[in-house]
Amino acid sequence: MTRVDASLRLGIRANLAQFSLLVTVNALVGGVLGQERTVLPLLAEQTFHLTGYTFLLTYVLAFGVTKAASNYFAGTWSDRFGRKPVLLAGWLVAIPVPVMLIWAPSWGWVVAANVLLGINQGLTWSTTVIMKIDLAGPARRGLAMGLNEAAGYLAVAATAVTTGYLAAHFGLCPAPFLLGAAYVALGLGLSGLVVHETREHARLEATQHTARTDGRHDHLHAELTNRQVFGHTGLREPALSAASQAGMVNNLNDGLAWGLFPILFATAGLSVSRIGILAAVYPAVWGAGQLITGSLSDRWGRKQLITAGMLVQAAALALVALADTFTLWLVAAIFLGAGTAMVYPTLLAAIGDVAHPAWRARAVGVYRLWRDGGFAVGALLAGIVADLWGLRAAVWVVAVLTAASGVIVAVRMYETHPKTHRPNPVAASEKGVL
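Now predict its structure.
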């Protein structure tokens, strides 16, 4: 039996310093992604004179494929080598990205930079998720994920609006990408010098792990191979697989918002600064909303929030397709962000509920493989439909898929939160764990 350090404690409050530091690190991870949200679609059209939406979205495809694969390896490597080495590797990969975007002589350089960005985001974001789940313990897992994802996507939003301002006043390049370079330097420094390893906290939770009283997880024992973890998370286990498909569809519509929304807004005659506002509002509401929805999922459970969130996103996308004014698009962006906030931390918390601590990092990696594969699927689907039938048709297709995903969750997923299968929803040992 593996010996566990007796001084370790689970809970956000018990690990507040490290938990807060990891929130900051993930904000920097989100900032590195946010440097592209407003500027890159405009750079593609105005600087590189790209024609055809499918070709333009190659950078989203490259990002999505590499991030999805990196998520999987982040989970397996975190179990094998520890969390901190994977986090550091992710930051090292990000170093060339701003430089490549600034000096890119052709669109191929932008695509190559997004390959590296996908690796960076997969390794760093996945690892901060895993580390926060390690520290938080089971009672406040939803809150932990809400804080993590809020930090990342608020940083995406803040950086999107800031880079829009910089682009409007100083040009599309290089000013917006210098901000990304500063994020990389700070993130690497904090991760290398101050962040501590958290794998022992997962081992501590494994020693305290109790099975569900309904016997639903009896087949999900601690000793699962990578192949079994992949199969359960992606296909066989009802809650895990329902979460995986919902995550994929969620990021499918995020890929659409990232790659095509700025162009749709530009064709309506909106200025760069207004496009920047719309590009920022959606992740801002998404990010801030998770401060509420993550905690609510600890009280109300996961399934209802996920189902409702997918349906709200579908309605918001339909409004984007119908609207043609800044005001209506602003309303749609708010609702799209709210729906995503209901879903994003809750899906991660559901994965943490079901997966045993011994293979939870791998399950998170597999889930994020499926989820971020949605970027690639969304880039291809939206690009092809937009080329054939126009931008609004692409938005309608994704809206329908998002609604269908919500129905799948309603039918297939069971409630995963521990309160549904414990005699006392807040066990004495968990009180004060925040």
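Residues 22-201+226-421 form a domain with the Growth Hormone; Chain: A; fold (CATH 1.20.1250.20).
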